[in-house]
Structures are given as structure tokens and as C-alpha cells.
Fold each of these.
Amino acid sequence: MAIHGLGQLDKTYDGSKLRIGILHARWNKEIIDSLVKGAHDKLLEFGVKEENIIIESVPGSFELPFGTKKFSEKWDKQGKPLDAVIPIGVLIKGSTMHFEYICDSVSQKIMDLSFELGKPIIFGVLTCLTDEQARQRAGLGGHNHGADWGLAAIEMATKFDL
């Protein structure tokens, strides 16, 4: 099974003036930690200053949409708005319909938040059928999609002069 990243950039992006939030779920800690590290390291690679990468957590992926909204609003109220937010979670199919309901709800609301908040909210939720798929996509034996999400946050926050 091939797992690829974003592909070629259309130009070089400078993240040095950006403030990026990463809000992560705490379920599946090993996978989440790897995805957060991938996003964090890519943000640094493209010039985002360490002090401008704000990382917080919520219990699980279902809490990511509400948490992302409140996380963004908190920093807006403090006069230190985030230019983009990367909610990071992982959902792995089990033996019940729980997976389908959570995937659908979380995916739809994260997409809606970009429009509601007027800033890029990057879809950083793995929706996998097996633990092995999640590990591969988290860079634990394959490509780390967290790095793609970090780069997508920089591109989206700079490309359209947000």
C-alpha cells in the first residue's frame, strides 16, 4: 500500500510571521505523539518560531471540533490570534458503528470551522481501518502525515494573505 505526502509545493512558503495552533486528542498516544511531532518539526523547518507553535490537548477526536473553536477564540480574545489550527486525532475502526458516526461528525465539523472561524483549520484526523494503517500514516513505519498537515497550515495561512 503506497502512502504519499502532499506532493510538490507550488512555491516556497515563509512561516516566520505565523502563529499556528496544534490541538490534539489524547487517545492512541504513540500515534498522536508522532503526528504532533511531525507537524511541529515541519512548522519549524518552514520558519515558524517555537514560541509561535501553541500545543494543547483534548480528550479524544470527538472533542476536536468544539476544542478547536474554543482554542482559536481563546487566542483571539488574548490579542494573539492563531493563523491556522491543526486538530490532530486518530480514529481506528472497531467492531461497532461508533467509528463511522465519529468520523462523519468530526470530519464535517472540522471542515465547517474553517468557514466559521475565517482561518485554515487543517484536517489532521487519521481515519483508519487498522492499527497498522494508523502507525504507517503516523510515521511509525511509513510517511508521517503530521508533516503534511504542518506544511498545509503554513501554505494556507500565507497563500491567501490571511
Amino acid sequence: MTETSEIDPAAAPSGPGCLECEQTDGWWFHLRRCAACGHVGCCDSSPSQHATAHARSAGHPILTSYEPGEYWFYDDRTGDVAEGPDIAAPRHHPEDQTTPGPEDRVPADWVSRLH
């Protein structure tokens, strides 16, 4: 993927975890970051699936991983995965943050709650 109006390399991430889950004391499996505005949301395997919900409601179809060591972009319209431009740091959540997380809110039966 190349830089387009759908990717803003200067957009900083909204925080270290899923914005909506943080507001509701929820938890997530993996995190995704909006390439247009930096919104950090939980992935589609997570119970609340906030990243894709944001992409669709905001009209921001390009997501990128917010996991350490993962540097890919995903187009929600087509399902295409590709490399993309460098984006504002940090590229991922803090390395000491648990997956799933945050650790103190993850239920014991978390695996059974994944999509």
C-alpha cells in the first residue's frame, strides 16, 4: 500500500490499548491501529471487535497491526494485506503489555470468548 488519503503517517496512536475497551474495563486479544487517524481498537478475534467497527463507522478502511513485530496493513474493503509506509511511533503497544490484555481484566475462560 502506498501513502493515500486513507493513510496518515503522522497520526499518532490513541493509546497503548483498545480505546473503547479501556473506557468500559473490557479486554482484548490483539490490537489494530487505524492508519487514517491512529484509533487503537481490538481485533476481530476479540470479544468486542472495536477496530473493524471503527474502520466501518468512520470510513477509515485501512488498519495496521499494533502488535510487536508485526508490520502489515489490511484493507477492510478488499481483505488485502500489504506493506505500507512508516507511521508515527509507537508502532506497537508496550512490549510488557500482556496478550491478551490488560492482564488484570482478562477472564480465566478467555479462550472460549474469542471469535
Amino acid sequence: MKALVVVGVVLMLAGVASLVTGGFSFTHQKKDVDAGPIQISHESTKHVPVGPIVSGVLIVCGLGLVVVGAKK
């Protein structure tokens, strides 16, 4: 497969996934105390919403790259 087609398919899949899930989450671990053998830390989970307009733009751009890559 050509590079543009692969990138286009990846963008389309990312657009569909963000449209279905509404965004993505990630977990960050932060150390509060680091005193020798004693370590105290906590995890915080953040959710980043992705709007449907951004998802639509990803899908359309991916489709455009697939069409351009297939014509070359």
C-alpha cells in the first residue's frame, strides 16, 4: 500500500474511534513523597473530550488522502 493510503486509513479509523468514544483518557502517576525507601504517589485519570466536528474533519481528511493516494 502507498504511504498516503495508509495514513488516510489511520486518520479515518482515529476519526471513527473518537466519534464513538467521545474522546480519550490517560492516567498520570505523580510522586508526592520520595524519602529514601518510602515513596508515596497517586494516580490521576484525565479525560480529554474530542468534539464531533474534529472527528468529522479527521474522517474527511483521511478519505481525501485515500483518494489522492489511490490516484497516484
